[in-house]
Amino acid sequence: MNTPASPPAAEGTDGSSVRIGALVPLTRPGWVEAGRHLLAGLEWGVREVNDSGGIGGRPLELVVRDTAADPQRAAAAVDELARMGVAALAGEYHSVVARAAAARADALGLPFLCSSAVLDALTDQPTEWVARLAPAQSHGWQIYADFLLGAGHSRIAVAAQPSVYWASGTRILRDCLAARGGTVVELDMGELDPAAVCDQLVESRASALLLLAGHPEPAVSIVKSVRHDQRLAKILIGAPAGQPEFTEWAKSLGGDGTAIPFLRYLPERLSPLGARVGTALRERLGEAPSFVAFEGYDTVAVLADVLRSHGVDRARVAGSWPRIAVEGTRGRIRFSRTPGISVWQWAWTPVQVVDRDPAEPGRFRVLHTG
Which pTM does this prediction carry? Predict the structure, then answer.
């Protein structure tokens, strides 16, 4: 592997900490609740590592930087963390931000284990420096398309904002549906307000509307408009990107936010490790942990295993991706090269399509697994 010139992580044995840089959206316009869950998982993982002796007797330290959903801010944070001598990078939720961070990490020769971002093209060219826990968008969204078709929805409207991520999702859905006689109708949220979306839905004759739009706005306003339009009483609203996963969604929408299927990266039943970690995260967060919190914990579990086995040299850390076999909260984690994916990929974490139960909005119903 060609190693770009960059300061290596310190190899000292003087008891100084081993540092991991963490990229997390903690302020708006970032999805703050997702960032809070991701950070809780990362921090709990670090606590458990240190309670069990750290990394060769040295404490593991998380150096957190808020990306605020800003790609330029994330790239600058990668530069800063590299200069600080972190052994690796972890985290990030927003795909477009993770893409900027991955490109910079690749250029600097800094290992990056991406926790939550799903965009297939996380880097323009294949890289040895970046690995990912979350399933690629093409994998998860194809499962979502299978769910839609299985439920009888073949004419789908998407309310999409301009974004590489949303454009990629639209393309995946269109390809999956077209192969089986389905159709995708695009509603441009750069031009339409929620009331106009309702009018366009009536004209399109779509049986489902997918929210490819930011949370809370305009997604919340779109849901309210559609739910209260009698012409659209039978339409299914879906959110493959996972907006209804978090409690903020339920607080904003109440009953209007139920029965909206979304993608969730959890098994139907957690392992004993997953159950134990889930209990700890629930206490830490004061609410049920999302799948994003488990992604954070699993990220630290993988990096701690690598650092214990291979040391803190960056090239050795990155070179270990194909040899990893770590028990995570949602299954055994191994990385491989997957066609069409430019980074080392866990193929695959469990994928579910779930929704909030109208009879009990705090409970999730599993509708489909893939």
Answer: 0.95
